[in-house]
Write a structure and sequence with these properties.
Layout lengths: L5 H56 L8 H16 L1
Length: 86
């Protein structure tokens, strides 16, 4: 009883036909189709951008080992020697 029956769809189509006329119905269907295509393409593009951002975040989150500078090592050694001497 509460389910959508085929004759319900026929009644809906007849009402739409009476409201909008025969000329506007194909235009409306075409417009809905174009809108759905645009929506789907935007969703795909958004998913690609999200994946790119996530990939960049993963790459940025990887820890790179610190490079020891020879000048830093010399200064550190000198400071340690002074500290040990005192």
């Amino acid at each position: 009883m509460g389910e959508l029956q085929p004759w319900h769809l026929i009644v809906i189509l007849v009402v739409l036909f009476l409201l909008f006329g025969a000329k506007k119905m194909p235009d409306m269907a075409r417009s809905v189709g174009q809108s759905l295509r645009i929506f789907k393409s935007e969703m795909r593009q958004g998913a690609k951008e999200t994946e790119e951002v996530a990939k960049q975040a993963r790459e940025a989150a990887t820890v790179t080992p610190a490079v020891e500078n020879s000048t830093t090592a010399k200064v550190t050694d000198a400071v340690q020697k002074e500290h040990n001497a005192s």
